[in-house]
Amino acid sequence: xISKVVMITLMLVGGSLGYNFLPTVWGLIxxxxxxxxxAVMNIALGVMIFYFLSxxxxxxxxxxxxxxxxxxxxxxxSYLIFGSLGTIIGLILGWLVNLSLIGLGLPFISxxxxxxxxxxxxxxxxxxxxxxxxxIRRLFQTKGNKKDEEEDVLERKxxxxxxxxxxxxxxxxxxxxxxxxxxxxxxEGTLLIPNFVLQELQHIADSxxxxxxxxxxxxxxxxxxxxxxxxLSVEMYDGDVKDVExxxxxxxxLAKILDGVVVTNDYNLNKVAExxxxxxxxxxxxxxxxxxxxxxxxTMRAMIVKSGTERSQGVAYLDDGTMxxxxxxxxxxxxxxxxxxxxxxxxxxxxxxxxxxxxxxxxIKDREENA
Length: 371
What we know:
Mean pLDDT: 80
Oligomer: single chain
Helix content: 55-70%
Strand content: 15-25%
Number of helices: 14
Shape: elongated
Structural class: alpha/beta
Strand order of the largest sheet: 6-10-11-9-8-7
Order of helices and strands: HHHHHHEHHEHHEHEHEHEEEEEEH
Low-confidence stretches: 148-160
């Protein structure tokens, strides 16, 4: 939509320039026929020229508009109001100073220098209005109004690192844990679902592979649940990222444009985004972080479900999926036994716990006492 508006605007500018300046051009060329040198043709030529010129420029202008929208959406109302007032005051001061300079009639000082002063005064006014807005507001506040001052402090702190858009990846939607996380309120802002992610989900849901089809339909169900969740802001991004084919690359570029955060559980996408200085919320890292911490010497009950890679090892799992490697646990296959933790290891795939059966420790102690 933005690209169409930009293109139409440029074409209107081209038609206006063609109507005003092409007659002068035709006057420099002898014997130009009236079929060409007329108002309708001049407007049409201007529109055509600017149409072809707008094709390579539309993407750049659209990116700039999106960046401006993201910048404005992240700023508070007081920031925008005081910034606008400061800019207006700067323009008025610049105009008053320029009146005397223009009256001198000197080259550069009367022609170019007023433009520089106007830009400079407007910028200084904007900076002063935004950076000193709290001091300006206090001048018009009563001394007993402490509640408003506290709200201003909180608003200022929230605006420093807050990023409005949390852009969901296909993998994290299919995973489903994002729904439980947002229900707790730990993720603030707006969940953004790009159109190309929705198309990828639909493609997976229509796959001939039954497993992929189930995963795709699960992702669509999660999206519907997110939209129906009360108090949760979920938006669709209908645009596309030009000149990028892969969905992961589009996500990273979109996060750069909107200054958002990519939410994923894809390890490779996480590393690519970090390399390009794009903030990432990784659901797997969150899950590993909130897992209970075990200390060597603690006891727990574990069900041995399979053999380990080493001889006589057994493997058990906690309810959260943490793997427990039990020494000599192979002898207790499909049995729930008490184990004592010997050590734990944090890996990229998650946390691993190493343990021994409790009764083996008791046997060692009994032998030491008898000796």
